Amino acid sequence: MSASDAPSTGIRVVVIDDHAMVAESLALALGAAGIDVVGQAPTLAKGVAMVAEVRPNVVLLDFRLPDGDGIEGLAAIQAAHPNTPVLVLTAVADDRTAIDVMAAGAAGYLTKDRAMGDLVHAVTTAAAGQTVMGSDLFASVLARMRAPQVHDGFALTAREREALQLLATGLGVDQVAASMGVSRNTARKYVQAVLQKLGAHTQLEAVALARRSSLLAPSD
Questions:
Q1: 12-135 and 148-212 agree in CATH topology
Q2: For residue 3, what pLDDT is reported?
Q3: CATH no., domain 148-212
């Protein structure tokens, strides 16, 4: 099926990658799945400006760019557009980098050797407000979860605890927002606060830590 024949998913993506061939390959693969790449940028500065201009649903961000890395890119995009999920792409898998990227607020972390089907799934998952975590990162998170954890009193507000309860039922950010009767941006802030206060890097890890610390209601 060609990109023009694919039924549209309504998802709009900006690709920030300094390798034109990689960016074009990503655009073709996503287009064939009905995902519209509405912009491509070779630098972080141009990418942030493009996000402001075209307002995509998801950003694909190369970890290594001429004017910054993925952590800097996440900070720049989130500062200007906190509602935009960012998937970080990298050529080399590294557990420490993966954990740092997720802690910085990425919607996901993917290596470029993954199948295009994995990329399509990651984009649609991120667009739905959920976190994307590959099996390599999952193993690292599990190892971290098994290690002793000491946190600063789990000082969650009532609304943050409510968001945590909803995460524990398997809901994504969009569903949390709907259940709490708040905007997606507000729900995302609650979720990020929960992760930060629990010292978690992903929603899955936050729920696991909360269960171990008896922060969740008995019914969950």
A1: no
A2: 46
A3: 1.10.10.10
Q: How far is C-alpha 68 from the geometric centre of its chain's CA atoms?
A: 19
CA distances (Å), 64 to each of 43, 130, 165, 201, in order?
A: 10, 24, 36, 21
pLDDT of residue 148: 46
Cβ atoms of 65 and 44 within 8 Å: the answer is: yes
DSSP state for residue 92 in the 8-state scheme? S
**Where in the chain are the domains?**
12-135, 148-212
Give yes or no for a contact between 62 and 37, defined as CB atoms under 8 angstroms apart: no
* CB burial string 207-218: b at 16+ within 10 A, e below: bbbbeeeebbee
> What's the pLDDT score for residue 203?
82
Give the CATH fold of the 12-135 domain: Rossmann fold (3.40.50)
Low-confidence ranges of the chain (pLDDT < 50): 1-3, 145, 148-153, 220
